[in-house]
Design a protein that fits this description.
Elements: H1 2-76, E1 88-91, E2 97-101, E3 106-107, H2 117-127, H3 139-151, H4 163-172, H5 179-195, H6 198-208, E4 215-216, H7 218-226, H8 235-243, H9 257-273, H10 279-287, H11 301-318, H12 330-353, E5 357-360, H13 364-377, E6 392-400, E7 405-410, H14 424-427, H15 437-447, E8 455-459, H16 461-466, E9 478-482, H17 483-488, H18 492-502, H19 504-513, H20 539-550, E10 554-555, E11 561-565, E12 579-580, H21 584-599, E13 615-620, E14 626-632, E15 636-644, H22 658-671, E16 691-692
Parallel strand pairs: 1-5, 3-4, 8-16
Antiparallel strand pairs: 1-2, 5-11, 6-7, 6-15, 8-9, 10-12, 13-14, 14-15
Helix pairs in contact: 1-5, 2-8, 2-9, 4-5, 4-6, 7-8, 8-9, 9-10, 11-12, 13-22, 15-18, 15-19, 15-21
């Protein structure tokens, strides 16, 4: 017992010794630790205080600023804020697409109730599983993604941003990677959730996101990649498309189809996990082959560019642009041209971004045949300009008289090239030669006392050019003939005499009524009766005017548009108002006279035959630089021009040669199989003048010293590489 007590005492002494030694050794260290702990405590308190100070002085003002910004942008937004530019489509008479018009973005807006349910489910499953419940942000989701990021060493399975956050970023912010942008994104997302329903947000999102290759929105992507509406897609195809927006570059179907396919499979797995699809649906979708197409709408140059021009001009009219015709001062013409070009450019941008559907009267069968007729009629000359474009060209416009609509239009010869998009049928203004006479000379004369048997002076034109103002034309060389025979033989002296009598002011007024665009002060002179104009006319303008003759003097502004709907599907097009330009009897008599041009006049050599009556007029400018044939049947009006882009002589070119033959070949086909038809009998003529040989040319219409009956000589030395247009054509429209 005593021994045990002794051992205990010894142990205690040992422990006290050890403790004493440890105290000696660690007491300074403990003091240091205590000091450190107190310091850390103080530092922690200071840090908290600093954070509070920084928060109050820096962070809170930023938060207030960002919140106010978020409230403002969302408050100022409307559903239209989330509608991108939308592509427009042009359709032919069969309602087949002939062109899709788009700028930088290709979009087609889908209302929520037209979005496939699978697409909504796919986006929710892969992008934002709490979408229907969250406030625009998902804090749990952010925390979960952070943990998964650490767990997978950087591999994220689900995105950290909600669908609403993505919408906020895409519409209001940039893709900058920063805490500031993220904070703004979250605040905007919460404000969006306050203002809009979840259905609206989903609708905005599906239509706003990029699907690569300029496609924005699910519908544009469906049409672009699969050639059909999203409502007609399979589950597999929808999942494939929904894979793309996560990273449009990485999942680009054209460049990385394997990446898109892998993400499709993941989306299908997520949809299965969420209970959106059954195992059977999942397995079937996984096994389905995905075939991506690259759409080719076969840009039809001539009909498409013409349809674009018609649509643009109509939008200009809708925007209250006031078209003007028949300028009496050069300054007015220049000022109008500037305003026109500005309005044209704005309306064209609207067409390309406004999501319009433009339905036209353009008939692909007639278009092909008219194109072939022009190509074959000029195939003898294969000379090309420095840019590779055929030097000898042609243009033609076909109008259905029953509707007044352009059904085919050819702006040049067919050629495999993308460098030249000039549509000569409405963009090239050329000298019309004698083809203009029925429009500004003879039909107006029939309204002003003349009849087909009126005797007219066939004045020597060269002598008339040299004569002083007020000269008595009866004293000048030249015989006489009836007006009818003067038209059939295309006698320039007859046209000069009649035009001097009725005056250029009267004659030109008919062209301005028929909306010929480039009538300027220099056109109000006697040489215009022979086709000498400052700028010239187009095939389309001539077709509209001759169609007016075929329709008893009733004019309708040429267009190919039959219907035009805006992005909401609302009809916005109204047919141009018909104008009674010529008195009906005068028009019918003129047509009767023009039948003689084909049967016994300058065009008799083309050999028109059959049960469908035809009438028309040839036109040839000085030195055979331009050749025209403008002709009508009871069914159709067709005008044909032939010449070089850079005007020069073609010795064999007359209105009665290549233009007339092209006209005959095409028109024969168009009326084949149609019932026999003749023009309406004009009945008794209203004009009472029996002879017009004694009169004096008015001083106000004195002829210039030299008639301008050919294309201007100040032409470029080589063919242009882009459209050279007058006003009507607006800005040059090529292959775009």
């Amino acid at each position: 017992m005593a021994e045990r007590q002794q051992d205990n005492n010894s142990l205690k002494r040992t422990l006290r010794m050890i403790s004493s030694c440890l105290g000696i050794l660690f007491r300074p260290l403990l003091k240091v630790l205590k000091i450190l702990m107190r310091t850390l405590a103080v530092a922690f308190v200071l840090a908290i205080v600093l954070c509070i100070v920084v928060g109050v002085t820096k962070i809170y003002p930023l938060y207030t600023e960002y919140r106010q910004m978020a409230e403002q942008v969302v408050d100022e937004s409307t559903p239209d804020t989330f509608r991108l530019q939308e592509s427009s489509y042009i359709y032919d008479v069969n309602r087949d697409v002939i062109a899709k018009l788009t700028m930088d973005e290709d979009s087609y807006y889908l209302p929520y109730d037209e979005i496939p349910e699978y697409a909504i489910q796919a986006f929710v499953a892969v992008e934002d599983r709490t979408f229907w419940e969250n406030s625009g942000i998902d804090l749990k989701g952010i925390f979960r993604v952070g943990l998964r990021y650490l767990y997978t060493e950087g591999e994220e399975v689900h995105g950290a941003s909600t669908i609403t956050q993505q919408l906020a970023r895409n519409r209001f912010l940039t893709n900058e990677v920063s805490l500031e942008r993220k904070a703004k994104e979250m605040l905007i997302a919460m404000e969006l959730t306050k203002k809009y329903t979840k259905e609206q947000i989903m609708e905005f999102y599906v239509n706003d996101i990029s699907f690569a290759n300029t496609y924005y929105g699910l519908e544009a992507a469906a049409i672009g990649y699969f050639g059909k509406s999203s409502r007609d897609l399979s589950l597999s195809q929808i999942a494939y498309l929904c894979a793309i927006p996560n990273s449009p570059t990485y999942y680009n179907p054209y460049r990385h189809p394997e990446n898109a396919l892998a993400r499709r499979d993941k989306i299908l797995n997520d949809m299965l996990e969420m209970g959106y699809i059954t195992q059977e649906e999942h397995d079937q979708a996984i096994s389905e082959e995905i075939v991506i197409q690259r759409p080719d709408y076969g840009f039809h140059n001539y009909e498409t560019t013409y349809a674009i021009n018609c649509a643009v001009r109509y939008l200009m009219e809708q925007n209250d642009f006031q078209f003007q015709y028949g300028f009496r001062s050069d300054d007015a013409y220049e000022e109008y041209t500037e305003r026109y070009n500005e309005a044209y450019a704005a309306a064209r941008e609207d067409l390309y971004t406004g999501g319009y559907d433009v339905y036209t009267s353009l008939d692909p069968e007639k278009q092909d045949y008219l194109q072939n007729a022009v190509d074959q009629g000029l195939s003898f000359d294969d000379e090309t300009s420095s840019n590779g474009i055929y030097a000898l060209q042609g243009a033609a416009t076909l109008i259905d008289n029953s509707t007044g609509k352009v059904v085919a239009i050819v702006g040049g010869r067919s050629q495999e090239t993308d460098v030249y998009g000039l549509n000569r049928a409405y963009q090239s203004f050329r000298q019309p030669g004698s083809a203009i006479k029925p429009l500004i000379v003879y039909t107006p004369a029939l309204e002003n006392g003349y009849n087909s048997d009126t005797i007219v002076k066939n004045v020597d034109v060269d002598a008339a050019k040299r004569a002083a103002n007020g000269t008595d034309l009866t004293r000048l060389p030249g015989g006489t003939m009836t007006l009818r025979r003067g038209v059939e033989l295309s006698r320039n002296g007859v046209a000069w005499s009649v035009y001097a009598d009725i005056t250029p002011e009267v004659g030109m007024s008919y062209l301005t009524k028929m909306r010929f665009d480039n009538i300027v002060p220099g056109d109000y002179y006697l040489a215009a009766s022979l086709g000498g104009f400052t700028h010239g006319v187009t095939s389309e303008e001539m077709a509209g005017a001759y169609a007016a003759l075929a329709n008893g003097g009733t004019y309708q502004d040429p267009t190919c548009i039959v219907s035009m709907k805006d992005k909401n599907g609302e009809e916005i097009f109204e047919d141009p108002e018909e104008i009674q330009v010529y008195e009906k009897n005068a028009a019918l008599v003129m047509v009767d006279i023009l039948t003689g041009v084909i049967t016994r006049g300058t065009a008799s050599g083309m050999g028109w035959s059959g049960d469908v009556e035809a009438a028309g007029k040839t036109g040839t400018t000085n030195n055979s630089r331009d050749g025209w044939f403008c002709g009508i049947t009871p069914y159709y009006t067709l005008t044909v021009w032939v010449g070089y882009d850079q005007p020069r002589t073609l010795s064999s070119l007359w209105g009665s040669t290549y233009p007339a033959q092209i006209w005959k070949n095409a028109m024969s086909h168009f009326v084949k199989g149609l019932p026999a038809a003749s023009f309406e009998d004009p009945g008794p003529e209203t004009g009472t003048k029996e002879d017009v040989v004694v009169y004096t040319a008015p001083a106000t219409t004195a002829a210039p010293t030299e008639a301008v009956t050919e294309a201007p000589t100040e032409a470029p030395t080589e063919a242009p590489t882009e459209p050279v247009t007058g006003i009507h054509g607006g800005p040059g429209i090529g292959l775009d």
